[in-house]
Amino acid sequence: MTQAQGPLLGCIADDFTGATDLASTLVAGGMRTVQTIGVQDDAKLADIAADAIVVALKTRTVPAREAVEQSLAAHAWLRARGCGQIFFKYCSTFDSTPDGNIGPVTQALMAATETPLAIACPAFPANQRTVYKGYLFVGDVLLSESGMRNHPLTPMRDPSLVRVLQAQTDAAVGLIAHQVVARGADAVRARIAQLRAEGIGMAIADALDDEELLVLGEACADHPLVTGGSGMAMGLPANFRRQGLLPAQDATVLPRIAGRCAVLAGSASEMTNRQVARWIQDGRPAFRIDPMLLAAGEPVVARALAFAQRSIGTPLIYATGPADDVAAVQRRLGVQAAGAMIEEAMGDLARGLREQGVRHFVVAGGETSGAVVLALGVDMLQIGAPIAPGVPATVSLGTDRMGFALKSGNFGGPDFFAEAVAALAGSEKAAATGAE
Ligand SMILES: Nc1ncnc2c1ncn2[C@@H]1O[C@H](COP(=O)(O)OP(=O)(O)O)[C@@H](O)[C@H]1O
Ligand SMILES: O=C(O)[C@@H](O)C(=O)COP(=O)(O)O
């Protein structure tokens, strides 16, 4: 099928799992969505029909100048492809370094899209992220009291998003409070007009549930740029449908892929720790990557691959560990160096596993997913049905097709790995029997 019109929505995501999370939301809203790994050759998309394109970048923790440069390049490419509205996706826990990158990238995209006021809302109620009076909650606690306070690369220790964003930009940051959002899209539009008149350039928006995210989405129908977590995109497909631009359709169809499955966990988040523990408790094969052995030059990757080769059943290879262990490794090796070293090992493992015939990869962690997908030379992903909120099954496009579940560190329940393997292996069984 060829593209009759340009994509309706062009998205720029600051990490790879964040990109699949957003793509999953758009697909659920009936938008055929393609995720590209960085900016791609136009020729590769020539025969692909997509209502939305999500460009996955790995810019969450790079220096702010680089994040801006890459995001502007992605914007220019999306615009050249005809995308009318632009969405900048960041983490539902507002993960940022002291220098950004949410503020600087938003400011640069505002200039590029001539947006006078950009809305900013990371709320994702299905995964227990809510925003009230500008404060971000994770479950029942403030962001700063959640596991995010110990994140290896972006520890979040201030729950006030107005304050966090204001420290990253010279645009004035305001608030669209819950009382306004609860009154509906017209009230939000009126508040935005008021904030603009006061010289405010970015506005954190409260949202406690999906209904409120739909209200915010509706209020942003004519905004050239919208920013937020994947929840903020929930209301956008309905805007296009109201304009008669998007038919009712099932956008989740994926091709079947045959082959073995492996799980790679490089996330240090609390939920991934629980998922690794559950997998081991269940007696499934698991191999731990010891960062200190890796740093000492031991053949850790080769040992892990040998383990995977002789495993009966799907192997898990993980660097995941409790916050204290991660902090100890970081003190000895340095935060960036430890992360980069483990990510490189995860990339090498992915390549080695592919040589062993693995065709399905369940990956935990945004940075880790970036490393794996890049190491495997994946250019584009087609997005399928969700395995858990924010984690769809995906299949790479191109000649060497593989299945992926790219899981944000904190997403999924304790049994997620087994659920993802079953979801991906379901397509394997279907391929073997020729079933659809
Ligand atoms: N045991 C460990 N010690 C130090 N760093 C680690 C360890 N395990 C993973 N890491 C690094 O921590 C980072 C985790 O980031 P990411 O993959 O985005 O997952 P998450 O954000 O869920 O923690 C990666 O750079 C990874 O290489
Ligand atoms: O919005 C979210 O929470 C996710 O989509 C996401 O970006 C998570 O990133 P990682 O925790 O680094 O996987």
UniProtKB/TrEMBL annotation:
Entry EC number(s): 2.7.1.217
Residue ranges constituting the Four-carbon acid sugar kinase N-terminal domain according to the UniProt record: 9-236
Pfam families: NBD_C (PF17042), SBD_N (PF07005)
Record-annotated Four-carbon acid sugar kinase nucleotide binding domain positions: 262-417
Keyword set includes Transferase: yes
UniProt xrefs under Gene3D superfamilies: Four-carbon acid sugar kinase, nucleotide binding domain, Putative sugar-binding, N-terminal domain
Source organism superkingdom: Bacteria
Catalytic activity entry: 3-dehydro-D-erythronate + ATP = 3-dehydro-4-O-phospho-D-erythronate + ADP + H(+); 3-dehydro-L-erythronate + ATP = 3-dehydro-4-O-phospho-L-erythronate + ADP + H(+)
Molecular functions (GO terms): ATP binding; kinase activity
InterPro entries: 4-carb_acid_sugar_kinase_N (IPR010737), 4-carb_acid_sugar_kinase_N_sf (IPR037051), NBD_C (IPR031475), NBD_C_sf (IPR042213), OtnK (IPR050007)
Keywords: ATP-binding, Carbohydrate metabolism, Kinase, Nucleotide-binding, Transferase
Function: Catalyzes the ATP-dependent phosphorylation of 3-oxo-tetronate to 3-oxo-tetronate 4-phosphate.
NCBIfam families assigned to the protein according to its UniProt record, in alphabetical order: OxoTetrKin
UniProt similarity note: Belongs to the four-carbon acid sugar kinase family.
Name of the molecule in the record: 3-oxo-tetronate kinase
Source organism of the structure: Gluconacetobacter tumulisoli
